């Protein structure tokens, strides 16, 4: 699916000759004709006989929209704007058939447009024929249709639709794109609330793999529509807040020449006659941008981890929200900047995405995300003390296991009433070689993690900016200095002290909403077992 | 350089024992001591004898900034804000030594901070000793220093600095991060105007490879500082303008299971026990997002092309600004949206990035970018006619060669006075199989390219949204239907007509500024011969 025409030319496709083009035109004509015929057939079939159909021109299968004309006279109204048209003239609406049911002389059809739904009615009379009612009742679910209708106020609320105070009295109906009659999953099933009352176990659930295998359908549920709009909001807020703070966006290469830390968990790429790797993080490049005087930088982009981890929170490819910042004297200048960025993101989501949060809440149990301002900062040692107080045995220099991490999250929530906190001063022993040791206590380091609902979503640190000290620390870790020579070299031309961190975007969205699986917040997730769609 | 601690643990690094930690602390102490000693030594050496140095406490090599204390009493002033401090008290400034020269009892030092420069002066007297002057004169270029100084108005403009009306009278000077004495390139050389008067050929030029090999230094030139800030602006404008128009940002996978168009020009990745590919474009995923009701989407991300093209405008990895949009009846709804987005980007750059454009212009010959509002749209056939009028032989269904593309750009500029235009209705024969044919003329298609200064920067089209017609067209192109089954399948559940396009970010920046090589607008470029840094 390459767009660049230079590539297209070299993709080995034969150019179409004029003769072939003519044949093509014929085929297109034929397809058009077929559509018209199908419409006629559908109408006749609906009639069940050859009785004259006074509504014949008002419904059918539309020919494929090939940009033949602009039909600029048709002004379309969105479903959520329909209330402004109640009691007024005819409007055109395009949407999907969510459900449709013809019964006798009436057809009730629910039209869906993204997360909005509206009831449509066709009743036999002067305008509508019984053939037309039958046609409408037979349109496969998920087909895209154009209707011309009047918006009419209803006396009792329509509970099954988002537009509860009106319905559409349809006068014309055309199928724009017809869906298969058999769908691999029903939007209704895929949208069902997780905690719905289902004592008899009759409700069909759609499992994760079926959803992901048919992502185009699955993404149409109101919850998914909301999740990915909120995800776009997280990125937007991240960028806007940092831009406001004077950060510059950069782009870092994904294909790199050397696996930075010994080659563990890294994907290999064939690069012409050579081998290369996919970057596990943009860190080296962010640091180079700092050494190159960009002062404060961020980057949003794909990050790759060849870990064979099949958990609820690991992906092999995810979106990294990374930032790096020069500071004057203390890495807390950076730590506070990152902490405040999170606070601003949480506020932005709460204030600007309340509709999306509510939509997700209709299907999944979403507990409101709590945060403090300014954010809570605990020392690693304090965290250890809290765990010990709760009866957990854990060493001073031991990393937090996933269960301990989660428990600590619960303890912090109970004590401080916040779903977000920062753990500062991790033990030096469990951090990478380039982490700046704590000058005041050799057991610790100038590094931090940040947590949402008890799960780590950012890891960061002050980096060693002195090349000699970096060599010393790398040797101490048993790292082959020759393999990181280029990295060390970038600090030899003067480099300000700096710190930063990397955030997993999908994790932030998952944990903000309190969802149980990261595959719910990656549009097309990649894990060791999934490479499609 | 992995940040996730879970990875760190698995990267095979031994945890540091307490004993080792103590040793570590000792080493750090030693390094500190070394620094102090070095400062003392430097001072003594400067003195040339053991004479008492009354300024000894006011200069030296600072110990490595390890976040020991916050020194919050030191308020730093940026160079560009210094004019507000003229005639007032002492201020602290951190920056790089751009040049320094001690001569007798005085030292002239130019301090650089990103693109700003200011002259600093140290003169022997009550505050400054001759040792201190010598010390300042010996600081290697590009070192980062902290100075405490008074801003003083100067009677005659300092032409060599961006701050021309003031200089800094230094009272304290400390080296924060010392650069190597020998630099692989001089910022001065790398910043020299391309068209500088150099009759004797004495000026050193820095070639592209030397620049890229030492990118951390090269990026410090005022032109590069400006180029990458403007590039961030292009992305920001692209996103903001589309968000304003109701688009949603999405993220698409870079690792894909099948090479979409026969496997030409695609990088292969080892994926656990399997093989995978790097995406050449997000098109399939954008289209799936449209089929999934996101209506209007864009994505900014890495795109990979395994083409062995070593030209001024090809990269193997670049940043794609991609968008896709459902429309009602005519793909021109999308074409106009894209065209207007470009107009808004050009206006945004002109209005908000004039300083950056000017900075680039100091080094490279930048002709102002001209555009029309609304943008000029020509038919492909009109373009062919213009070329023929200029004496070029070219077929009706022949693609534009690069020289013809450039010539057409010049002809359009001469006739319409615009550096941006849209060429609509490309011949069907030279476009990919999924391009919608023109319903009114079988020789053409509903596809378009957009050009800046005569080079293609966007290619796009209405895509075929009807699965049967798509199969027909694929077969016509001799494509194995089984290999694109998943792609076709995504249109079987109802899909609105849609169109879109893909933009090469680096090309937009290169052509907007009129630069001659795409490596100038990629921070860390990748081409068939370059994988580093």
Automatic annotation (TrEMBL), chains A, B:
It comes from the Eukaryota. It catalyses: tRNA(Asp) + L-aspartate + ATP = L-aspartyl-tRNA(Asp) + AMP + diphosphate. Keywords: Acetylation, Aminoacyl-tRNA synthetase, ATP-binding, Cytoplasm, Ligase, Nucleotide-binding, Phosphoprotein, Protein biosynthesis. GO terms for molecular function: aspartate-tRNA ligase activity; ATP binding; RNA binding. Residues 19-28 have a biased composition (Basic residues). It is found in: Cytoplasm. This is Aspartate--tRNA ligase, cytoplasmic. The lineage of its organism: Eukaryota, Metazoa, Ecdysozoa, Arthropoda, Hexapoda.
């Amino acid at each position: 699916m390459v767009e660049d025409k230079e590539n297209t030319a070299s993709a080995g496709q034969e150019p179409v000759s004029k003769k072939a083009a003519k044949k093509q035109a014929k085929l297109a004509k034929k397809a058009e004709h077929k559509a018209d015929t199908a419409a006629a057939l559908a109408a006749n079939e609906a009639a069940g006989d050859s009785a004259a159909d006074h509504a014949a021109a008002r419904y059918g299968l539309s020919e494929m929209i090939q940009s033949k004309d602009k039909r600029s006279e048709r002004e379309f109204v969105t479903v959520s704007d329909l209330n402004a048209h109640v009691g007024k003239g005819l409007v055109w609406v395009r949407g999907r058939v969510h459900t449709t049911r013809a019964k006798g002389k009436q057809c009730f059809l629910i039209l869906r447009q993204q997360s909005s739904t509206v009831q449509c009615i066709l009743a036999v009379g002067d305008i509508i024929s019984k053939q037309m009612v039958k046609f409408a009742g037979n349109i496969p679910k998920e087909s895209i249709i154009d209707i011309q209708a009047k918006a009419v106020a209803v006396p009792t609320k329509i509970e099954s639709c988002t537009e509860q105070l009106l319905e559409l009295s349809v006068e014309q109906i055309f199928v724009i794109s017809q869906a298969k009659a058999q769908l691999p999953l029903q939007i209704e099933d895929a949208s069902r609330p997780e905690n719905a009352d289902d004592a008899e176990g009759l409700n069909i659930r759609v499992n994760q793999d079926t959803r992901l295998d048919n992502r185009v359908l699955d993404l149409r549920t109101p919850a998914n529509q909301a999740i990915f709009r909120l995800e776009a909001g997280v990125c937007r807020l991240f960028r806007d807040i940092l831009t406001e703070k004077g950060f510059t966006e950069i782009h870092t290469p994904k294909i790199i020449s050397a696996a930075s830390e010994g080659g563990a968990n890294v994907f290999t790429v064939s690069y012409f006659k050579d081998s290369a790797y996919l970057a596990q993080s943009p860190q080296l490049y962010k640091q180079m941008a700092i050494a190159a005087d960009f002062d404060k930088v961020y980057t949003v982009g794909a990050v790759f981890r060849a870990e064979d981890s099949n958990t609820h929170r690991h992906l092999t490819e995810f979106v990294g929200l990374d930032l790096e910042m020069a500071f004057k004297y203390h890495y807390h200048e950076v730590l506070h900047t990152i902490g405040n960025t999170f606070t601003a993101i949480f506020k932005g989501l709460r204030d600007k995405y309340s509709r999306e949060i509510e939509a997700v809440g209709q299907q999944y149990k979403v507990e409101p995300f709590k945060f403090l301002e300014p954010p809570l900062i605990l020392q690693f040692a304090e965290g250890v003390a809290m765990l010990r107080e709760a009866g957990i045995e854990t060493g001073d220099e031991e990393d937090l296991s996933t269960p301990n991490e989660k428990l600590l999250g619960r303890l912090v929530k109970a004590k401080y009433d916040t779903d977000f906190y920062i753990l500062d001063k991790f033990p030096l022993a469990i951090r990478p070689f380039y982490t700046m040791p704590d000058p005041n206590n050799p057991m610790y380091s100038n590094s931090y993690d940040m947590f949402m609902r008890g799960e780590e979503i950012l890891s960061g640190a002050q980096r060693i900016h002195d090349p000699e000290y970096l060599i010393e620390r790398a040797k101490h870790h048993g790292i082959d200095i020759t393999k990181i020579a280029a990295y060390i070299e970038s600090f030899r031309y003067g480099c300000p002290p700096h710190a930063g961190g990397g955030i997993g975007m999908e994790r932030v969205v998952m944990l903000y909403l309190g969802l149980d699986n990261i595959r719910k917040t990656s549009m097309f997730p990649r894990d060791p077992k999934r490479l499609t769609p």
